[in-house]
Amino acid sequence: MGFFGVNKHSSSLVSAPYNVFQQKGSANWSVRFSIPGQGQIRKSLGTSDRKLAETLAQRVYYESLLKAESGLNVRVKTISKIIHDYIQHMEKRLEQGMMPKGVVIQNKAILTRYVEGFFGEQNPNFISNKSIRDYLSWRSDYWISGPGKDIQFLTYEREGKTITSPITQKKRIRPSPATLNRERAALSGFLQYCFDSQYIKAIPEIRTNKTGYTARPSFSAQEFKIFDTYVFRHRAEEGIHPAVKYDRAVFYAYINIIALTGMRPTEIKNMKWGDIIGLELDEKGQPLTHDLHLRVHGKGKSRELIPHREVLFTIVVLHATYRHAGFIPQKSDYLLLHQDRTPFKSFSGQFNSALAATGLTRDYRGVKRTPYSLRHFYITEQLKNGVDAYVLARNTGTSVKMIEEHYDHNTNEKYKEMLRPKRT
Question: What is the pTM of this model?
Answer without folding.
Answer: 0.51
